[in-house]
């Protein structure tokens, strides 16, 4: 027997809308790779180790919100 997926409640939908503002850019793996010089595999290793936050997925793509990545890159720059 297959499980039916639950529909998103209006409250949950509104909460997600507040979390992602229209002004918030999304950073994909190729964009992050170009900015840092790391390969896609290295980026995933950093996610697994906790150096980068987990991305959210939409469809079959992974992305981060730009402010999250800016914080991580600035922290990495401070260490160097």
- Morphology call: elongated
Q: What is the rounded distance between the termini?
A: 54 Å
Uncertain residue segments: none
Largest sheet: 3 strands, antiparallel
Give the helices and strands as they follow along the chain.
HEHHEEH
Overall mean pLDDT: 81
Helical residues, percent: 40-55%
Strand order, main sheet: write it out. Answer: 1-3-2
Tally the beta strands. Answer: 3
Total of helices: 4
Strand content: 5-15%
Q: What structural class should be given to the helix and strand makeup?
A: alpha+beta
Gyration radius from CA atoms, angstroms: 16 Å
Give an overview of the whole structure.
The structure is a single chain. With 80 residues, this protein is α+β, with helices and mostly antiparallel strands. Strand 2 (56-58) and strand 3 form a beta hairpin. The chain is 52% helix and 14% strand. The protein has a domain at 33-80. It is elongated. The mean pLDDT is 81.
What's the topology here?
Blueprint: H1 10-19, E1 26-28, H2 29-36, H3 40-49, E2 56-58, E3 61-65, H4 66-79
Antiparallel strand pairs: 1-3, 2-3
Summary keywords:
80 residues; three-stranded antiparallel β-sheet; 3 strands
Give a concise summary.
With 80 residues, the protein is an alpha+beta fold.
